[in-house]
Amino acid sequence: MDPSTKLVFDSPLLRVHHDGRVERFYGTETTLPGFDAVTRVSSKDVVVNGATGVFARLYIPDHLLTAEHKKVPILVYFHGGGFVVDSAVSPAYHRYLNSVASKAGVLAVSVNYRLAPEHPLPAAYDDSWAALSGAADPWLSGHGDTSRVFLAGDSGGANIVHNIAIMAGARGGLPSGVSLAGAILLHPMFSGKEPIDGESRETREMTEKLWLLISPGSTEGLDDPRLNPMADERRACRTWYAGSCLFARPREITTRGQGPRRTTRR
């Protein structure tokens, strides 16, 4: 059999061949930055790390560029896709961030972190941490309040938000003097060895295989504390930042104040 046709991972999201070739079936379309006439938001791409190619797309409501305003909050967003598909420059996320920046009146930073399996964890965490220095970009620092930075993300991006917050607590804050005011986790990618909420065996098996693809060096499997926040509650209690958190999953939205969070995994 031709080694290039042998599969080591197969799912509706992507297929990984034995020779390392990756086929993605979702989230491969991209769109350019610029001025959006509907939302009147301007965007541009800035390089985070020239060596890795990681960049972020910055969004700013047009009126902030042409008039004197008080500085507004900054939203740093991490796209979803289970760490393996999609990007910050997909049409869906581009439209979404244009809309959020316009309606919320914030400056937005959408991070295009590297994907697994080509770049397994902790690459996405490291890229996302480094991208927070983008909040100090002159385009943002001139109009954005770096003392009011909010992290947000969905799916794998929400997992990044959680782990960045943990890292911030452990390291005494965020890079570049950025202050973390709060976090928004939208149906975060969490799991664990103990099944809950009628989770099917098929779903758990696929999640376990996906996590092994994302983080082949993990020894805890689904109870890796990066995936299961409750696997090491002392870690979460000790390092979680002091801010506010919005946690959302399908059909439910809950808000949390300070202190450790016991969240339901997806």
From TrEMBL:
One Gene Ontology MF term: hydrolase activity
Residues in Alpha/beta hydrolase fold-3 domain copies: 75-232
Highest rank taxon of the organism: Eukaryota
InterPro entries: AB_hydrolase_3 (IPR013094), AB_hydrolase_fold (IPR029058), Carboxylest/Gibb_receptor (IPR050466)
PANTHER family reported for this sequence: ARYLACETAMIDE DEACETYLASE, OS09G0461700 PROTEIN
Name by which UniProt lists this protein: Alpha/beta hydrolase fold-3 domain-containing protein
Organism: Panicum virgatum
